[in-house]
Amino acid sequence: METITVNEAFCPQNHACPVIRVCPTGAIEQHNAFSAPVINEEKCTGCGVCTNYCQTFSKN
Ligand code: SF4
At the top level of CATH, which class does the domain 4-59 belong to? Predict the structure, then answer.
């Protein structure tokens, strides 16, 4: 299965992550609007949808 890397260097970490809405399994989590998103590996299917929306997310 494809896994997803969150590259924090690409995330300005100053807004609520809009990509959370597009994940079909609710696998993207964010502690607060000033933190980078994190992937819940137990929920992520590796579909790659998030990588189409933001460069912070990339396939391994
Ligand atoms: S790869 Fe798919 S399931 Fe995993 S975080 Fe991205 S959009 Fe969600």
Answer: alpha beta
